[in-house]
Amino acid sequence: MNVKNEKIAVVILNWNGKIWLEKFLPSVTENSEEAEIYVIDNLSTDDSLDFLKREYPEIKIVINTENLGFAGGYNAGLKNIDEEYYCLLNSDVEVTPNWIEPVIHLFENNSEIAAIQPKILSYENKTKFEFAGAGGGLIDNLGYPYCRGRVFDEVEEDLGQYDDEKEIFWASGCCLFIRSKDFWEQNGFDERFFAHQEEIDLCWRLINSGRKIYYTGKSKIYHVGGGTLNKQSPQKTFLNIRNNLSMMAKNLPFPKLIPLIFFRLCLDGVASLYFAYKNGFAHLWAVARGHFGFYAQLPETIRRRQKHQKKDYYQSKWLIFKHFLGQKNT
Residue 301: is its pLDDT beyond 50? Predict the structure, then answer.
């Protein structure tokens, strides 16, 4: 299948990421002949832009006026990009031959699909899935995100068990293919999230509006992960707690929302003690800051709720208890 250049844009968001651009741009340029490649720069202070202009003059550069984070950075930069399909690609990703074609094939054969992710494997251990997306994102009844191939911190080996094409709940932001029309009909990412779980919120809004999210195991990439914020970063804990609660407040049906938010706040209190024991006091304080941040955003979060919320949003029940008490890891 031939895909015209003007149909798809591979878009990499960069902030002081020359080290990643040097390492991974060769795989992107070599395997993306059917796409236009863009780099959106979040006002880097390293020599990323000089490197791009010197080594990759064919790549189009969009420069933001400040560091707007993942969500705001993409929202601002994508306003300058007109292709029918976006592929939002992290800078720390190695792509493989024929990674785009299966995705476009799915889009063009099912008009109900708004977003798609490929199989995401670990760059450091290429036989295993990667934390951020794995074999497609799902969510449990308490609002905890997980993936086919990853439950909390436990990741599976890739044995071909997720080589299918399947409807999922959320597509990973490390490699998110999305129709530009759908992206802008939802007003893009929620910029208040800054980073982390903004793609899950976007996918949830798309599902509430009647659109579908898909995964294809026919496309494969390798992701380093933690390129901007390390998994053990208290700031990452803060963003994940705040954004997850805000996401639920935006997208859950009201009858489920109030009791679930209360229950989650109790669970987060327990989790903060676990984080403090495992990673230090800074993580306990990060959980508390996440709650305060959620309360501060709540009036605007409620204002942003859509008119309709689907009741059947989850794929598993009580995953946290099954995992930590029942040792469910797959």
Answer: yes
pLDDT, tens digit (0-9, with 9 covering 90-100), for 262-274: 999 999 988 888 7
For the question of whether the overall pTM of this predicted structure is more than 0.70, the answer is yes
- 5 contacts 35 by C-beta, under 8 angstroms: yes
Residue 311 burial (CB < 10 Å; 0-12/13-18/19+)?
Answer: exposed
DSSP string for 181-202: HHHHHTTSS-GGG-SSSHHHHH
List all residues 6 or more positions away from 173 whose beta carbon is below 8 Å from its beta carbon: 70, 88, 90, 132, 198, 199
- Please name the residues in contact with 68: beta carbons below 8 A apart, sequence gap of 6 or more: 42, 75, 76, 191
- Asked if 157 and 128 touch (Cβ cutoff 8 Å), the reply is yes
| pLDDT at residue number 226 | 57
- Model confidence at 6, pLDDT cuts 50, 70, 90, reads low
**AA identity, residue 105:** H
- Number of residues that this document lists for the chain: 330
In this prediction, residues 104-125 reach a mean pLDDT of: 97
β-strand partners of 151: 154
> With pLDDT > 90 as the criterion, what percentage of the chain qualifies?
80
Are the beta carbons of 236 and 227 closer than 8 angstroms? Answer: no
Amino acid letter, residue 129 = F
Q: Is residue 177 within 8 Å of 102, Cβ to Cβ?
A: no
CB contact set of 27 (below 8 Å; sequence gap of 6+) = 94, 95, 96
